[in-house]
């Protein structure tokens, strides 16, 4: 279990897979441990992908699959799942086999103030419209 913890700390799917291979009998005999390790594998897979794509704004999916040493289809499926789950902000361009990462959109401090100002202006415009219809 200590080696599983080290693999988790390093966010390394390769280390985790090596530990599971090394201790196959001990880790797969207990159904509870096996189920948790399968769930943990999925989580670690996502974290490892995030670690690998972190420095890029545009990267080929084949390159990521080669780095993580998994089939292209598996990596592509996980990336699309992560996009749908909002774990990262990106687009899969399947035509060119590229993952395009977008900057995370954050609301600044000015956004709520600007929204309130626009809502106030909307109320004023509605009021002026009502007054002009009365003048006609």
Strand content: 5-15%
Order of SSEs, N→C?
HHHHEHHEEH
Gross CATH architecture of the largest domain? Orthogonal Bundle
Major β-sheet, in short? 3 strands, antiparallel
In terms of quaternary structure, the protein is: single chain
Low-confidence stretches: none
| Molecular shape | elongated
Structural class: mainly alpha
Radius of gyration: 25 Å
Helical segment tally?
7
What topology, given as strand order, has the largest sheet? 1-3-2
Helix content percent band: 55-70%
Count of the domains: 2
Q: What's the CATH C level of the largest domain? A: Mainly Alpha
CATH superfamily of the largest domain: Winged helix-like DNA-binding domain superfamily/Winged helix DNA-binding domain
Structural features, described:
The chain has 136 residues and is mainly alpha-helical. The chain has two domains: 100 residues, Orthogonal Bundle (Arc Repressor Mutant, subunit A); 30 residues. The chain contains seven helices and three strands, in the order H-H-H-H-E-H-H-E-E-H. Helix 1 runs antiparallel to helix 2 and helix 5 crosses helix 6.
Any chance you could write out the topology, listing elements then pairs?
Blueprint: H1 2-9, H2 13-22, H3 24-29, H4 31-53, E1 58-60, H5 61-68, H6 72-84, E2 90-93, E3 98-101, H7 110-135
Antiparallel strand pairs: 1-3, 2-3
Helix pairs in contact: 1-2, 5-6
């Amino acid at each position: 279990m200590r080696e599983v913890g080290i693999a988790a700390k390093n966010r390394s799917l390769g280390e985790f897979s090596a530990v599971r291979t090394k201790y196959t009998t001990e880790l797969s005999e207990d159904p509870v441990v096996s189920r948790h390790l399968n769930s943990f594998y999925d989580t670690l897979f996502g974290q490892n992908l995030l670690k690998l794509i972190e420095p890029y704004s545009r990267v080929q999916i084949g390159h990521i699959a080669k780095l993580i040493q998994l089939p292209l289809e598996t990596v592509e499926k996980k990336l699309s799942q992560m996009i749908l789950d909002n774990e990262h902000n990106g687009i899969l361009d399947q035509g060119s086999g590229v993952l395009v990462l977008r900057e995370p959109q954050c609301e600044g401090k000015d956004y709520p103030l600007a929204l309130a100002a626009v809502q106030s202006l909307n109320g004023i415009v509605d009021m002026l419209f009502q007054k002009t219809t009365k003048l006609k």
